[in-house]
Amino acid sequence: MENQGIRDARQLGVPKMLILGLQHMFAMFGATVLVPALTGLSVSATLLFAGLGTLLFHFLVKGRVPAFLGSSFAFLAGYAAIAPNGEAALLPYACVGVACSALLYLVLAALVKSFGTQKVMSFFPPVVTGPIIICIGMTLANSAINNCTGNWAVALLAIITVVIFNIWGKGMLKIIPILMGVLVSYVFAALLGQVDFSGVANAAWIGLPVRFENTVFSLIGNCDVNLLVTAIIAIMPIAFATMIEHIGDICAISSTVGENFIENPGLHRTLLGDGLATALASLFGAPANTTYGENTGVLALTKVYDPRVVRIAAIFAIIASFCPKFSALVAAMPAGTIGGVSLILYGMISAIGVRNLVENHVDLAQSRNVIVVSLILSLGLGITFSAAGAISFTAGAITLKFSGLAVAAIVGIVVNAILPGKDYTFSSDYSNGKKER
Predict the structure, then answer these.
(1) Whole-prediction pTM
(2) 370 with 185: CB under 8 angstroms?
(3) Following CA atoms 217, 223, 225, 231 in sequence, which dihedral angle do they give, to the nearest 10 degrees?
(4) Of the residues 21, 108, 213, 287, which has the fewest C-beta atoms closer than 10 A?
(5) How far apart are CA 245 and CA 241, in angstroms?
(6) How does pLDDT run across 320-348, given as a tens digit for each residue?
(7) Which of 142, 84, 133, 104 lies closest to 254 in space, CA to CA?
(8) By the 8 A CB rule, do 24 and 295 touch?
(9) What is the DSSP code string of 59-95?
(10) What is the DSSP string of 11-55?
(11) Which residue, among 328, 331, 232, 214, has the nearest Cα to 281 in the 3D structure?
């Protein structure tokens, strides 16, 4: 039966779907733009390849999965390891490392295609993916709190606006609470004189989003081979975390929408789409892409699941990338606005992880399940918020850093696989498997 959310979206009409697409674009803006701001990569290129990557992803998944691909935070450590101060000359090397990491997506996609989803998914049951989804939301929540501390009044206004429109809103206003939260709090901050529009005034209206010197192609004929190899070795392992994050995100979207996207169009297609989008973005100097939990939060809030709405958001992002003035306007968005909206969305990601455990009846009275969940949560959150923020391993002259999410994912998968009592089997149920007892 066709999903109710998709039917409702088709009845909305083009004008309302355009507004919904705009809301999805704003939902991803805060985090997507923050990555280039932290790394020194181009904001315009980031928007361009977030849009192009999303469209490529939708093409490869036959237009079925309502996912938006934005900048991945998981690779921040990789960029920092190669270009700690955002040095423009070093960033292309980091981008090569990220592009190579995308090849691991293709390998896993090939394994899924060759051996079947059931065999691969047996390593990713809800007792593993649920806590990982929780960790994704909770690790992101820290950045939301940091943004809120810039101006709690603006952040609280954004939160209150989202809640009011989501709970008591009527008609179209009820399904665009995130957009309303952004607009109301942004205008409020501007009226208080807390928004610096100087960058907007100085920016051009039209400009190319990509510069050759920022792409990996600029290294041709002028490449430090040792640095290149170092970047590849240091950054590729991060893909183990992002691939698990991808599976968790697809499970979260499936659970939110009520359709089994792991089965149809297939995990191999979603992995292929995410991997190729990341490779494409990296080659042209944009951050790695990932399926965005922020937009999954919007799906959960609005109950509108039509993938066409997400594709509209992608087109908006592409258009915006050619307008430096618009990019500057987004970059001027108050930190409080970003924090307030993100606080709700990140919390909803973790809530989806909890729902993943509950709906699949994961039995936490069983010691083996408690051990798996405990290790994932403790390692994922403990390492992330530790002083080092990662676990380092030295191999010769190379130091490899594994994020908390990467360690938690690997440990969770291995421990779940070796402990007795693993009776999970993947089924066609959208919740991603049979009940775990």
Answers:
(1) 0.70
(2) no
(3) -50
(4) 213
(5) 6
(6) 899 888 778 877 888 888 888 888 878 87
(7) 133
(8) yes
(9) HHTTT-----EEE-STTHHHHHHH-TT--TTTHHHHH
(10) HH-HHHHHHHHHHHHHHHHHHHHHHHHHH---HHHHHHHHHHHHH
(11) 214
